[in-house]
Amino acid sequence: MDNTDFRKYAHKIVDWMADYLANIEDYPVKSQVAPKEIIEQLPASPPQNGEEMERILQDFQRIILPGMTHWQSPSFFAYFTANSSFPSILAEMLTATLAAQCMVWETSPAAAELEQLVMNWLREMLALPEDFTGVIQDTASSATLCAIISARERNSAFSINREGFSHNKYRVYCSEQTHSSIDKAVRIAGIGQNNLIKIATDEKLALRPDELKQAITADIASGKKPLCVVATLGTTGTTAVDPLPEIAAICREFNIWLHIDAAFAGTALILPEFRWMSSGLSQADSFVFNPHKWMFTNFDCSAYFVKDEDLLIRTFTILPEYLKTQTHGQVNDYRDWGIALGRRFRALKVWFVIREFGVEGMQKKVRQHIALVQNLTAEIEKHADFELMAPTVFNALFFRFHPASCDPADLNKLNENLLQELNASGSIYLTHTKIAGEYIIRMVIGQTSVTDEHVQRAWRLIQKTAAELTAH
Predict the structure, then answer these.
(1) Is the pLDDT of residue 331 over 90?
(2) Strand bridging mode 133-137 / 302-306
(3) What is the pLDDT of residues 262-282, one digit of tens each?
(4) Is 3.40.640.10 the CATH number for 101-344?
(5) Among 71, 108, 124, 461, which is least packed, fewest CB within 10 Å?
């Protein structure tokens, strides 16, 4: 392919992109293909000779597209959103064209300095402590791993990086509702799954500080070394908010690293009315939230903030000869701020999104999503056959179908069947969670272009499908 062909197909693909986004509601939200249906349509071996781009694009539409779940559909209510936006897509196109590997300042000075700028912007937008310094990671999973490894090295005076473990007495604490990435992080960091202590939660499913302090005290008495507490603002299952002031006081008392996981709900901090949940954040050692979840920025992009920038860099810096530069020590070489050496130019899309929306535009959109959820929450509360199963805090709600005629022992299966029927329809996509063994339907309303019309259409479908299930 030469530049002329590239121009031709680039225009064709951009036209397809615009048509796709304009007509995205015509696609089934959740892919309807069966396991192996895609791979069985593709050749087992690579082509020996190059193929025409026209044929490749035809196969993309014929084979690949049916196997895609359409995350940008306004009827996508599953998981947490990974919402995008037009400015973010345009920036990704430029990023792909530049194809820069932004590991150190010298490999692309603009990438490093723009990252420094947008992290300062995000800190200001979320009203985070001024002594926090930020870096873009790929996901919150990586950011949390960085936090736990940093805590490990601070506690061991960097001896584990040098010599490995001389003991395995460390403990990490989180609530029963904390994301599974914490489990993975303690495994990778060498702490061990058995040393991750899950703390009981209260009636709002938030971590109980009294239980945390009791666990820490018991561990110290038995010779263990409390290392890190992970508090969550917006748990994955039910968006519960852990009480930061009380947790921070305990961490300060015992000199324990406090990491805040706000991967999804952190975006709500751009709204002054939601900054109640960040009380105590000034006492934290690290904080993460994902612009790629609810801030209209293409996956992947995770904003990780730390109080001690030097400690982070000391934890991850390795400087072989081939990476030494004249500017080392004068600028931010972000390869030293995390696990990966290679780094994408993620700051560009954040910059585009913030500039195109503006802070007020973002606030308006986030408030709209929260209002949609509050309105639907009120409707569910009034319905005799549905019940809310957890508090509605942000833009997610948790409910189940509970007709009076149903035996309580059959409720889980009834709601599982309801969810499967709804997702099989292709009209909407929802997921579930379990609380105390009870099957609960999760509905997250945060896709960029979602409106009240989409929410009401989904609610009508939920009621209709539920009625049909019980009529059989």
Answers:
(1) no
(2) antiparallel
(3) 999 999 999 999 999 999 999
(4) yes
(5) 124
